[in-house]
């Protein structure tokens, strides 16, 4: 069990234990969801002890149960005229603050457990942004890798032919995630318009600029992560200047985290993809990474063609053996376990912030907290993407388009506010410096107060 917080309040402890026990009994086959729930539930002990009304209204047991889970068949035809079948999901978890909001993930590992964990985390992440958006998530076990554009288009159209029944600008607003970029959003957006016979731009975010999309959306999660870390560094009287940084992943989040960290004066020495990682002691050549990943769609190993003195290592998990001051996991869930966290600790890492969703397991988180590694959890540190998605919704509602500078300035303000709220909540409830507790409590209170106000239904 997590040791993120403890409490001497017997009623609170028994309540959390009972809720989590029942949750495990009902969801024993969903390890990712249980991991996310455990991390959040037990960190809420301090706020529950001071606010017994949350226990009286049984908020925890209500908040861990989704409003609804939609599962559906997606049949589509490949280029060889063979019919393929995948499974689609949409988890609409909580809409107390606003319409369900969260990305769509196309990846072969997608299952109900992963969808529920992502949607559950999204509730609190979205609340932290200060925007009026609730929590949801969706996707499919479809693998876009190796598929032609025509195959991806046909899949997206089939996927939307069912999903459109369950979404809308004021109901549920999906976005992109792993395997879903502007291309996939565009195909789904076109199908939605055909089926609805209406131009409802706010129903999907992550669209291309010029076609209802927002400038700075592609950069938002990576930039936002670095803006959040800049606040963490400032708290300790430090900055990115001359810091050594390791970033896992090489998708949008990683690329734009590297870009902004380098802009702030850091030396980023490693990044990865699912096959392995590269180490460049002279600092990552970002232009090369962008060409490899954004233009050619190649594997990270081809970086050696640009920088022959760099090193390539098979297997992406060993990237955490590279010494660094700041670690930014931006790849996928549970990429840092206890052993990896101990490596970071032994190598002198002082700051870890999550660009991906739940990339650190519970053992790793406890190692950070117990050894004074200043840790920015994903629901706070990577909230920049959904924050700008909400800004895209605002632009769509106003039928306008903002400049890159305006969106970026708003993003910076939002990330600073998330850090400040998380820090303040941790201090208020007796866990100063623990941003896990702080972000969970800050997000939870906004949602819980709304649930109390709405009553039971």
UniProtKB/TrEMBL annotation:
NAD(+) binds at residues 221, 252. Gene3D superfamilies: Glutamate Dehydrogenase, chain A, domain 3 (1.10.285.10), Leucine Dehydrogenase, chain A, domain 1 (3.40.50.10860), NAD(P)-binding Rossmann-like Domain (3.40.50.720). One of its GO terms (biological process) is glutamate biosynthetic process. The active site is at residue 137. CDD domains: NAD_bind_2_Glu_DH. Keywords: NAD, Nucleotide-binding, Oxidoreductase. Substrate binds at residues 101, 122, 125, 176, 389. The record marks 177 as: Important for catalysis. One of its GO terms (cellular component) is cytosol. Residues 214-455 form the Glutamate/phenylalanine/leucine/valine/L-tryptophan dehydrogenase C-terminal domain. InterPro entries: Aminoacid_DH-like_N_sf, Glu/Leu/Phe/Val/Trp_DH, Glu/Leu/Phe/Val/Trp_DH_C, Glu/Leu/Phe/Val/Trp_DH_dimer, Glu_DH, Glu_Leu_Phe_Val_DH, NAD(P)-bd_dom_sf, NAD_bind_Glu_DH. It comes from the Bacteria. SMART domains: ELFV_dehydrog. Belongs to the Glu/Leu/Phe/Val dehydrogenases family. Homohexamer. NCBIfam families: PRK09414.1 (NF006929). This is Glutamate dehydrogenase. It comes from Lysinibacillus odysseyi 34hs-1 = NBRC 100172.
